[in-house]
Design brief:
There is one protein chain. The protein has one domain. About 75% of the residues lie in helices and about 0% in strands. It has 14 helices and no strands. The chain is globular and about 60 Å long. The relative contact order is 0.13.
């Protein structure tokens, strides 16, 4: 009964309409329109590549390091965009919530789907770079969809927590921006994990679902020289830990969002 309600025809139509509206509003008045969803990560990648690879000579020991770097940026941007856009989604749709009775979770889901569409477009660019550089795609690439599901679960859980909390605590937007900046540099995106000499710190960084997912995706798509959580812990079963963290965060997000949803209309 619950599943039927979530995926009912009315809810699917509403979700589709919110996603379309979000895309139109985001690029309204923009000369290049949707092209910006591809250009932003490419410009960011170009700057980081010039600074960290050309000038600081980081990652020279990693095969296909430019596309290795690009993949990490694209995966991180998916998480960052999902959570950042979802954070204010409920408040931004306050008029809609007060006027009609709709499932509140659809608003957050629509923001995450918009970010997912951008991510898929960006992955096309990554695939072009992979073909151009001759990346070493592993047979384990068949598990890549599970990595993407893990990232989405983690991002959605965080999004539900943030969007519900933001209704009452508007400082969350500033706090989350700072956290994202710090987390970006704590996640092995710009640098190979091998530059960290502390084995304990390597283990800690890969307990982060984003760190583990990015490293596993790089192993599957770019090069087998990537250090993964299984290698750092010398135990393949440790792959499950970040996944469990993602599931727990998602469950906490759902529970907290449901608890706070009844107060959204009066607090917005």
């Amino acid at each position: 009964m619950v599943a039927h309600n979530i995926f009912s025809k009315r809810n699917r139509a509403l979700l589709r309409e919110l996603v379309v509206t979000d895309f139109k509003l985001r690029y309204q008045g923009s000369l290049l329109g949707y092209t910006w969803s591809l250009l932003r990560p490419l410009f960011f990648f170009l700057i980081l590549y010039l600074v960290f690879v050309r000038f600081l000579r980081i990652g020279t020991s990693i095969p296909h390091y430019p596309v290795y770097l690009l993949l990490g940026i694209v995966l991180w941007n998916f998480f960052a965009e999902t959570t950042s856009q979802s954070l204010g989604s409920v408040v931004n749709r306050g008029d809609l919530i007060r006027k009609i009775r709709i499932p509140r979770w659809i608003i957050v889901i629509s923001s995450s789907v918009s970010a997912l569409i951008n991510f898929l477009l960006n992955m096309l660019v990554v695939l072009v770079f992979m073909v151009w550089t001759g990346a070493d795609v592993s047979a384990t690439v068949i598990w890549l969809p599970l990595i993407l599901v893990e990232i989405y679960m983690f991002a959605l859980g965080v999004s539900l927590l943030l969007s519900a909390g933001y209704v009452k605590y508007r400082d969350l937007s500033h706090i989350w921006e700072i956290i994202l900046q710090g987390a970006f540099y704590l996640t092995p995106i710009l640098y190979p994990l091998t530059v960290i000499t502390s084995h304990t710190l390597q283990q800690f960084l890969l307990l982060n679902p984003m760190g583990q997912a990015i490293q596993d995706a790089r192993t599957m798509l770019i090069t087998k020289d990537t250090v993964t959580i299984a290698e750092v812990y010398r135990n393949a079963a440790m792959r499950v830990v970040p996944v469990l963290i993602s599931v727990v965060v998602l469950l906490l997000g759902v529970l907290y969002f449901r608890k706070q949803a009844k107060y959204f209309a009066e607090n917005i």
